[in-house]
Amino acid sequence: MSASGALQAQDHGSVPNARPVPELRAERVTSGYGGVPVVRDVSIAVGPGEIVAIIGPNGAGKSTLLKTLVGILRATSGRVFVGSDDVTNHPPEDLARRGVGYVPQVNDIFEPLTVHENLEMGGYLLAPSRIRERIDEVTRVFPALAPMLTRQATS
């Protein structure tokens, strides 16, 4: 997976349909497993309110790039920024505190727990008083989830 050219923030003064200033940015990132690069020299930027898709065939490096952006894998070169802060190779919990996370496509859940308990686990970085509020927000966004909160996650 590769990309050419670094993305740059723009002055959006009066430019219609201009992109917002990136909140998450990677510049020329290279990463992989056991010293073997899977992602080479990739640059990407995501601004507030944007939806960005990373597409490619199996094995192209999509998950490797995302894991590198959130600190699960180490970047062997390049930089990752959240806002203006360089967060390259920071641990995932640091990035989670900054609002950056990774949700894998596999079923990484705690099967013996209920759906509600799994959501509570997902809020481990929140103050206990905020967890209920966040679960309410999640069920407003995904209303079909609300009646399933008491079910075991495997049901």
Overall residue-averaged pLDDT value: 84
Low-confidence stretches: 1-12
Q: What gyration radius follows from the Cα positions, in whole Å?
A: 18 Å
Query: How many structural domains are formed by the residues?
Result: 2
Order of SSEs: EEHEEHHH
How would you summarize what this structure contains?
This protein has four helices and four strands; from the N terminus they run ββαββααα. It is of the alpha+beta class and 155 residues long. The protein folds into two domains: 74 residues, P-loop containing nucleotide triphosphate hydrolases (Rossmann fold); 49 residues, no CATH class.
Task: Write up what this structure looks like.
Strand 3 (75-82) and strand 4 (85-86) form a beta hairpin. The longest helix has 14 residues, at 128-141. The protein has two domains: 24-97, P-loop containing nucleotide triphosphate hydrolases (Rossmann fold), CATH 3.40.50; 107-155, no CATH class. The protein is an alpha+beta fold. The protein has a four-stranded antiparallel beta sheet. The chain is built from four helices and four strands. The model is unreliable at 1-12 (pLDDT under 50). It has helices at 62-69, 92-97, 115-122, 128-141, and strands at residues 24-33, 36-46, 75-82, 85-86. The termini are far apart. The radius of gyration is 18 Å and the shape is globular.
